[in-house]
């Protein structure tokens, strides 16, 4: 029997051949899977096991030029729910009750989201945007319900609420279009992005680098362990040209007024820096970052008065007429006209605002007292072209080019423009034009530009409000410099006369409230007739003091009635704040006395 | 008894290969179950199974394997009795009533019954050398093994049946089955598979119903009057065909046509029967084998995740106890049927090749033992065991590599599973017994 089946082993050999062939194919396949496609499968396996919870990096601060923080980050808390198996409905209901009480969110919403997470067994956020105060309660809840995890988050916070709303802008959750744009840049879907203003324009600088919580999860998405934590990095700070003290003064002054809307712009005459940009009412920027569906109905007045608001310049336009008069050579400083309180234009009588009349006035007095009849005469003498030319030189029909959306250009009312629209020009139009009534429209910032040019000898600098962008280590990433836009050539004499006249407005005329000790303030009040309601109040000015740049100020108060009583005090506060002086000469001036 | 000296009594290669496989398996099992709540129980059971397996191996080794030949019929009948018993007192797990619940562990009698069947057939073939040469002999053998398959069907344990085909096929070939019968059998299997496969294809791609052949096959795949019509119609068709051919060439015998008719009709009837026996999840497995993307979260999930586990292991592997796919539960059944993916993930291609090598060594040594065997019983027995190990290797690894649909077949010595472990050790014990006694003369 020894070696019995040797002869038959061929059949077994055949079977073994099959085995070796199969083994060969297996080896080929295993090399293909484990070596050739290794990286592909490795990536898949990493995707399987790693879940990232992005921790939004704090955005950079937005600060004023004097270091006041205008936009910063606030720690807020969010609650994540890490489901585990076998949790009964009662338990979830209790948890939802607690969370809803602390977060003051609707119970049903919380319950629904927890139930959804429980069903899928994947950790997710249930509530966010909770204040620091709630954290303590949250940790108490966590002691009882270990399934929740409390996470720190950065949310945008604007400590000044309504201040500078249009310049700073706000951040909010992304909408569909934002997501298309930002997702390619590695934003996580719950990130806040700048929607307007500096927040939007400098998004790439302000944005912080997200940190993250890397979790290892099992096949059901349940947390196995925290793998690591990447610290976030704060974004870069944006430093504005805004001088907080000036801004604050402007805001406070506007808020003190009983009128609903108004605006004040203060520019540095030698650079174009925006020192104050106050809009009343503005809107609370915090509203958008803590945006919730249920608060949607709130009305927000987003109208950007200084650049989008067009108003008749009214008596402030007399500055332009004055310049035109002197430039024409037909009117001298001491050219006198008699004001009986009205001006007879032949077929129509034009009134002065002072019914009693200003009696005999020279150019300086006329501006100081804002005598309408004097300017009717001037208009009549020098003609409308002269005035329109000067208004164009002062760019009243152009945008300033400030880096803000929806800026409007003013409209100059004059014979040339009238010709463009194929209309006729009448003497009455000339008279109206001379005192800034009629169809001329200007923006407050446009008037501020006129003041800037008068105070620095005719140069227009483009207004800008971002000074620089500074990295957290102090490195300056971007620095804005003044931008020369143009220069007006006027006679020396013209400047002297206009300044003298405007000075007299402040010292003896309608703008006496702005007379500040130690500061040379030059101004002009205005009261724009408004067919839709009470008149709008204007005050435009520039101020000089040794050792500091001159500034240009433009204040408009809607329905403020009198420039001298509504607008001028705002300008006074702005100028005082800028030059840091507390005493002013005419504190005791009775405001009623000097209304136009 | 005369012993011939200078000949080794122990097949060390076999012991080495088994040791390697059990070590790889143990490490992988422990690693893959670290996250499970009942890991202590699995560890305990596994160690117990290996211990019992080693004891059983030594017992079978000491025992002269020829005793098995003597008692082969009784062993076979006893194991059939166990299979019958499990249908009544067994417990259900994963849809199959295939377990005896014992105090510390459960036992799957089919694992033992499979060995018994191999022993029985080896004994029968060695006693009846030419039984497979003629048709009636094959029918006889077929009837003898039929009870085993029927009882397995009843559990139902399709994977158990599937794996049994491998040792049977090898034994039939080695025992010198008339190859034409084998081809007939393959034809029968082919016919059987057509009907369920049409169902699968139509489920996956309903547009195939526009194809008249597919539509016809789909129409007749249900228990209704169509079945009878088809049976009769085919008979008439073949009869006419024979008539025509007979006219042309009178030598052609009608028996061929009867045979063809018998195979097609029986295959067809079995096919319809199988189609109705196949459960939904089994359909899904076949579907996702054809197209793994068809249901990536469901039936295709296992195979995709197992592939990811394997592929992510790369050359070096992620390290012992560091395979994320298996440890975190992305690969289901990772400690049992999908243990190979754990090996691939944690030990890389080195581990895989080591496993392949060990399996090749075992299968090769079995051939050596078969050839060296002193008796023809030992020869057939070894061949059957070789076929069994090949079956485990082909089906289990083929499944993970995508060559084979998902089937609940373990990888012997590597997968977790007490009865399979013990049964595999018993086989090694028997093989060692054959090896040790190769030179003994009774």
Topology:
The complex is a heterodimer of chains A (596) and B (442).
Chain A: H1 9-36, H2 38-49, E1 50-55, E2 62-63, E3 69-81, H3 89-103, H4 107-120, E4 124-130, H5 132-144, E5 148-157, H6 165-168, E6 171-173, H7 176-183, E7 192-194, H8 197-201, H9 203-206, E8 211-217, E9 223-230, E10 237-240, H10 244-256, E11 262-268, E12 274-280, H11 286-289, H12 305-308, H13 318-328, E13 337-339, E14 342-344, E15 349-351, E16 359-361, H14 363-369, H15 372-382, H16 384-393, H17 415-420, H18 427-434, H19 444-456, E17 459-461, E18 466-470, E19 476-479, E20 484-487, H20 492-507, E21 520-528, E22 536-545, E23 548-557, H21 563-579
Parallel strand pairs in A: 2-10
Antiparallel strand pairs in A: 1-8, 2-3, 3-4, 3-5, 6-7, 8-9, 10-18, 11-12, 11-23, 13-16, 14-15, 17-20, 18-19, 21-22, 22-23
Helix pairs in contact in A: 3-4, 3-5, 10-21, 13-15, 13-16, 13-20, 14-20, 15-18
Chain B: H1 12-32, H2 39-62, H3 66-70, H4 72-89, E1 91-93, E2 96-101, E3 106-107, H5 109-127, H6 135-154, H7 158-174, H8 179-204, H9 212-219, H10 225-248, H11 254-277, H12 280-290, H13 299-313, H14 324-327, H15 339-372, H16 376-401, H17 418-436
Antiparallel strand pairs in B: 1-2, 2-3
Helix pairs in contact in B: 1-2, 1-15, 2-17, 4-5, 4-6, 5-6, 5-7, 5-16, 5-17, 7-16, 8-11, 8-12, 10-11, 13-15, 15-16, 15-17
Structural summary, described in words:
By secondary structure, chain A is α+β, with helices and mostly antiparallel strands. Chain A is built from 21 helices and 23 strands. In chain A, strands 2, 3, 4, 5, 10, 18 and 19 form a 7-stranded mixed sheet that branches. Chain A is elongated, with a radius of gyration of 35 Å. Chain B is mostly helical. Chain B has 2 domains: 12-177 and 297-439, no CATH class; 196-277, no CATH class. In chain B, helix 4 packs parallel to helix 6, helix 5 runs parallel beside helix 17 (418-436) and helix 7 (158-174) crosses helix 16 (376-401). The termini of chain B are close together. Residues 1-6 of chain B have low confidence and may be disordered. At the A-B interface, helix 1 and helix 2 of A face helix 7, helix 13, helix 15 and helix 16 of B.
